[in-house]
Amino acid sequence: MTRVETPDDLYRLQQQLKAETDPDQPRISVCCGTGCRVHGSMDVIQAFREEINGRRLSGKVEVVGTGCHGFCEKGPVVVLKPSGVFYEGVGVEDVPEIIVETMMNGAVIDRLVYTDPLSGDRVVHEHEVPFYQKQKRLVLDLNGDIDPTNIEDYIAFNGYAALSKALLQMKPGEVIEEVTQSGLRGRGGAGFPTGVKWRLCREATGDVKYIVCNADEGDPGAYMDRSIMEGNPHRVLEGMIIGAWAIGASQGYVYIRNEYPLAVENLRIALRQAEECGLLGHNILGSGFDFTVQIRPGSGAFVCGEETALMASIEDRVGEPRPRPPYPAVSGLWGKPTNINNVETWANVPIIIDRGAEWYSEIGTDQSKGTKIFSVVGKINNTGLVEVPMGTTLSEIIHDIGGGIPGGRECKAVQLGGPSGGCIPSAHFDVPIDYESLQELGSMMGSGGMVVCDEDTCMVEFARYFMDFVQQESCGKCVPCRLGTRAMLEVLTRITQGEGSEGDIEYLLELGGQIKESSLCGLGQTAPNPVLSTIRYFRDEYEAHIRDKRCPSHVCKALIQYTIDVDKCTGCGRCLRSCPVEAISGAKKETHVIDQEKCIKCGTCLEVCKFDAVVVE
Amino acid sequence: MISLTIDGRRIEAAEGSTILEVAREHGIEIPTLCYHEALEPYGGCRLCVVELETPRGPRLVASCVYPAEEGAVVKTNSEMVQASRRMTVELLLAAAPHAKVIQELAARMGVKEPRVTLGDNDCILCGLCVRACAEIVGAKAISLVHRGFSKEVSPPFEIGSNACIGCTTCVFICPTGAIKLQDVLSTRSVHEWTSEFQARACKICGDHYLAPEFAGEAKESLVGE
Fold first, then answer.
1. I need a surface site. Which of A506, A571, B2, B217 has the fewest CB within 10 A?
2. How far is B202 from chain A (nearest CA, A)?
3. B118 touches chain A (CB under 8 A)
4. What is the predicted ipTM?
């Protein structure tokens, strides 16, 4: 590891690394993010290495295991450079063929090529894949190029140049001003202006100050921060060092959930390498500035993403929120001024310093600048990580980038911001997304989890799911959150079981409003949102459950019934044989009947019937 | 000194005090459950919420922990405050229907039948026992464990705690009587923590009066001072 002690050292190393890289050299980039690893990408990368050695190509072809490319639906994803040929779902058995046919003969292997679910077109090159075309990848731009466990890869792509610029060419106040001017707002969900936050902490009295990276991403379905840390941990570190310099902190913490083993590992490696390189530690780049970072693994309590609970956990106390004020900027870790930002916020900082506030603030809307990463999951064709400029519409994300809904079904709504956010119905999909517009719609930006619902999603059951989550994750300290969310869950459960009564909707609205107003921390203050927003947009579904004892989406088991259509049933016996509880009877070639007493509503008969004779109502 | 307005009254207050302290000093009543003058405020029961004017409109803050700030305009009994307190008491009544103090609060606020049932446990998790044990006694024999609806007060690992000295401070500070004490002849039991002590007998009258552990602690702290 080359040690860099001055900005010139860093610049020389950058130039040397760039000179050593031949842009025309064949390079195989294999996604090794958690999603692709689950699909076997570690075996695939091993097979590539063996194949290359076996063919005596080492030195001529480079294999890189990178972070998440974002296209998680189709893993393992492999991109061949410089041609940009894009293969999805690559298995170990495909490896020799890829080397011979594509790398050596330049031919494309049809079966590994991506087919666009909307147009049915085959897409050969990565840059032509519609999933990537409408994105603007600022934070995730290097995820498909660099090996996150090698600091030199990051440096070769101008990594740590922003740090050098901040430390040696700018004063702390200028750095804060640049971040303020850029319009960057907290990516953790609340959207507080980052520059303002930094200034408050800088101006707070205290000889010791701390900065914290909140990497306790806990929303169901959200994995933006995970992928940044897995794929490009140095960008987060660089942002933190710049922030520490601006604020005047000499110690930083990364609070990361231990359920992210790969992110923890890559971050540890990054920390060690940055220290060995001289980019962390004593007298960074000869500036006289000292800064160290410690990793604090969390044990998976959702509430520890709340900043005061997070700090308590770092201090080895129970992860329970405390009332604010005092705010962390005044009294945070061990009573010292502390600045907490989320992973994605930190990762934006080097980009702002490198390219300037003016450039950055041209991206996005009036009030919300830059890009936002969303993890698009649920009923969507292209499950994955999407980075778009603020102001992109939901319709663009779901249809153009996400490739629409599987089975050609209709999209009913999306849940943004996880259990703290709200549901947005398809009628509002043309609204440009920013912090304010989402709030007006009764939702919130949140950290970026986006769960897509299709017409088969029951919105009452959906709201019940999130309420179940928050009532379990509530720390239990304050009454409205501990008992209020539990009460809401009881009522929602009652409704989905067909035992709802008149007044339940009004009670949920009243309770939800009170919990939001009187809870101690952000968890309780946002917990009722999924329920309130689904009542706002899908009240008819609640009413159908309560008044007509009917679940319009045929999801709530207590409210549906499976029957057999006399005209369509041929008496083939398939359903009869498949039924796990022997609830179906009928002689051969005669209409079958479902015994409602025995039926457990598992839906097996519906799945196996070849004549569409099983009806749910 | 700072000055603020509470319920239309202009009040001078010492800097660093909470809204609740200032209000009580001036005879303005705010109900509380998890607050005790001798302990660090907790902000958990939310019964002490008051309405605070902010540039973004009125909002509720817990007066036991919220600092009295210069120029603050506070309402302690507005419709917004009352609605919140009624909901809090209704929830507490749903979870602790037999706790007398909750029944009384409900009666006072006009809360009748709760619209849900959330069990029947006299412990309302106000945390007074835990804080008293840690801050006053210094024993730290109990703490709040688990989270959400499963939260409870417990000695470590839910087994009889050898840190407990049988002082019964928790019994006396508990607002709902959820912590039960039994003195049978020479045996004192604090049932909730499965702690049992052989009480010491008075040399003159023969009555049992305290656990030797408690006596030891008390002596140590007196000599120490």
1. A506
2. 41
3. yes
4. 0.95
Give CA A354 to chain center in angstroms: 25
**Whether A480 and B146 lie within 8 Å, measured CB to CB:** no
* Mean pLDDT rounded to a whole number for chain A: 95
Q: Is A89 left (phi over 0), alpha (psi -120 to 50) or beta?
A: left
Do residue A517 and residue B146 have CB atoms under 8 angstroms apart?
no
Residue A352 in tokens: 């702002």
Helix (H, G, I), strand (E, B) or coil at A314: helix
Query: What are the tens digits of pLDDT across the range B91-121?
Result: 999 999 999 999 999 999 999 999 999 999 9
The H or E element that residue A27 is part of is: strand A27-31
Peptide bond just before A96 cis, omega within 30 deg: no
What phi and psi, each to the nearest 5 degrees, are found at residue A93? -65, -20
- What domains does chain A contain, in order, with CATH numbers? 24-81+85-124 (3.40.30.10), 157-361 (3.40.50.11540), 371-454 (3.10.20.600), 459-546 (1.20.1440.230), 561-616 (3.30.70.20)
C-alpha dist (Å) from residue B34 to A605, B21, B63, B65, B128: 56, 14, 12, 11, 6
> Nearest C-alpha of chain B: how many angstroms from A292?
33
What is the structure's pLDDT at A88?
94
List residues of chain A with CB under 8 Å from any CB of chain B.
301, 303, 318, 322-323, 325, 471-480, 482-487, 490-491, 507, 510-511, 514, 517-520
CA of B205, closest CA in chain A: separation in Å?
45
B165-180 pLDDT, tens digit each: 888 899 999 999 999 9
Structure letter (DSSP) for residue A61: B
pTM of the full structure: 0.94
pLDDT in tens, A539-568: 999 999 999 999 999 999 999 999 999 999
Q: Cβ contact (<8 Å) for B144 and A318?
A: yes
- Using a CB–CB cutoff of 8 Å, tell me whether B120 touches chain A: no
H/E segment holding residue B24: helix B19-25
- The CA distances from residue B86 to A423, A518, A520, B81, B117, in Å, are 29, 12, 17, 9, 16
- Cβ A98 vs Cβ A61: under 8 Å: no
Is pLDDT above 90 for B194?
A: no
B46, B88, B125 ranked by CB distance to A476: nearest: B125
A486–B118 C-beta distance less than 8 A: yes
Q: To the nearest 10°, report the CA torsion of B84, B90, B92, B95.
A: -150
Summarize pLDDT for B16-50 with one digit per residue, the tens: 999 999 999 999 999 999 999 999 999 999 999 99
Nearest to A70 by CA among A34, A122, A40: A34
Q: Distances from the Cα of A50 to the Cαs of A55, A77, A95, A96, A558, in angstroms?
A: 9, 18, 10, 10, 56
Distance set, CA B3 to CA B6, B22, B66 (Å): 10, 10, 15
Q: For the ranges A391-400, A437-446, B14-23, B84-93, which has the lowest average pLDDT?
A: A437-446
Domains of chain B listed by start with CATH number: 2-77 (3.10.20.740), 85-121 (no CATH), 128-224 (3.30.70)
CB-neighbour burial class of residue A62 (10 A; exposed 0-12, middle 13-18, buried 19+): middle
Dihedral pair phi/psi, residue B82, rounded to 5°: -65, -40
- How far lies B10's CA from each of A37, A115, A493, B49, B56, in Å? 65, 72, 48, 19, 22
Average pLDDT on A475-497 reads 98
Q: What is the pLDDT of residues A119-167, one digit of tens each?
A: 889 999 999 999 999 999 999 999 999 999 999 999 999 999 999 999 9
pLDDT of B225 > 70? The answer is: no
- Say if the Cβ atoms of B146 and A475 lie within 8 Å: no
Percentages of chain B per state (helix, strand, coil), in multiples of 5: 30, 20, 50
pLDDT confidence band for A341 (50 / 70 / 90): very high
